[in-house]
Amino acid sequence: MGSAGSDAKRCVMNIMMDANFFGADPWQTATYAPALAAWMKSHSDDSAAQFSCNALLGFGVPGATGKSFVAKIWSAGIPTGTYRYYDGTLYMLGLLHVSGTFKLS
Q: What is the spatial distance between Cα 50 and Cα 32, in angstroms, rounded to a whole number?
């Protein structure tokens, strides 16, 4: 599953989902998302779980920065292999978020 543990991979999705739905904490988009996006661009963890969660960074960074994160999930195939259940679940959730079809109501 790469260098970060499974719980760590999901943190970005949880934080950016909160920012997208509620926008209650400016830290999420002013500090966290830009810093993590910059770090992720210089560190390669290409697991489906990680790039699926990272796709939500598009909600907290300028379009030019976020485009590569969103494009990666759109161009990826459905996860297969050993971690297909975990990776596939995060892949599905990531696609629902970035497509705008994940709703709270």
A: 16
Q: Kindly calculate the radius of gyration of the chain based on its CA atoms and give it in whole angstroms.
A: 13
pTM of the model: 0.89
CA 37 – CA 78 distance, rounded (Å): 23
Largest interatomic CA distance in the chain:
38
Q: What is the DSSP-derived secondary structure letter of residue 83?
A: T
A 10 A CB-CB count for 12 gives 24
Residue 42's Cβ-count burial label (10 Å; 0-12, 13-18, 19+) is exposed
The residue that leads in pLDDT, 1 or 103, is 103
Euclidean distance between CA atoms 97 and 81, whole angstroms: 24
**DSSP at 62:** -
